[in-house]
Amino acid sequence: MPGSMPGSQHVTVRGQYMNAREFARHFGRKWTFLGLAALSVTALGVHVASAETFVTTPTRTIGPHVFGQASPSPVGGWTAADDRVVGASIGGQNGWISQAAHLDDEIVAAAGHNGGQAWRLSNWYHNGVVNHVISPAFAPVGEAGSLNASSQSPQSNHVTYQFWFRSASTSAEPGTSVSTTISDAPGRRMTYLGIFDALPGDVDSGCPDTATGCFHVDVVDVVADTDPNDPGNPLFADHYSNPLVRGAWYRAVVDATFVDGPGNDQVHTQIFD
């Protein structure tokens, strides 16, 4: 996505995000809405938009108590009051796959950016899996000579996807997060865009005022093959947006070009208000 447009924040990231990195330091009850009708992917010059209708029932009970989440956990552990009843998951609908039926996600009517359906999800329950929810598969993209998990060669080296999002609450819900990536089914991630409501006092939050925290996005880059403080893993760098307004709609655009050779892929991420 060359250049930057008025009303947008623009970050250029170089490198490949191949290793599974877990962001388990954040947990909570954030309800983030994604506008289903606005979710789209462009690859090989073909535009595919997700405007299908999803079902909202039956309801189900989810949460750390009923499914035995051990960590992180509040003092005294999870109780039945921590669980909740939610609507139907996006998993199993229109080609979407959910790795855990008890994740806190549901299809919500009349809550989308355009007034249609929305997908509400949170990190209320987690088990460390990278690809908790997987979209329908698109044509493989990557560098020449690479193969995906199904031993398929790339049909292009370029892909773009975008979606509308907002926090469901206009108030702070510190310690909550969701994220999205371009990856294959096993979770070998090539990009990372996280949406965080940072914990007050978290010196690593990237917020202008760490004492109060903020609601913002984080784009992650790989800057070296080896982290001197974490041998065997790459060295990552975080690129934070300015604080966003809780409850306001934003459009995220991720544009990735996979260039032959090491450490030179181009990922452009923009957030539009």
Overview of this protein structure:
The chain has strands spanning 8-14, 32-35, 40-43, 46-49, 60-62, 84-86, 97-98, 105-108, 118-121, 133-134, 158-167, 176-180, 193-197, 215-224, 235-240, 250-257, 266-272. It has 273 residues and is mostly beta strands. Strands 1, 2, 3, 4, 8, 9, 11, 16 and 17 form a nine-stranded antiparallel beta sheet that branches. It has a four-stranded antiparallel beta sheet with strand order 12-13-14-15, with no helix packed on it. A two-stranded antiparallel sheet has the order 5-6. It starts with 7 loop residues before the first strand and ends with a strand. Helix content is 0%, strand content 32%. The model is unreliable at 1-31 and 35-50 (pLDDT under 50). Strand 3 (40-43) and strand 4 form a beta hairpin. The protein has no helices and 17 strands.
What is the chain-wise order of helices and strands? EEEEEEEEEEEEEEEEE
**Strand runs, count:** 17
The secondary structure category is mainly beta
Task: Give average pLDDT, whole number.
Answer: 77
Strand portion: 25-35%
Low-confidence stretches: 1-31, 35-50
Straight-line distance between termini:
16 Å
Helix share bin: under 10%
Global Rg: 18 Å
Helix run count: 0
Task: Characterize the overall form.
Answer: globular
Question: Biggest sheet, open or closed, and with what strands and sense?
Answer: 9 strands, antiparallel
Describe this protein with a few key phrases.
273 residues, mainly beta, nine-stranded antiparallel sheet, four-stranded antiparallel sheet, 0% helix, globular, disordered N terminus
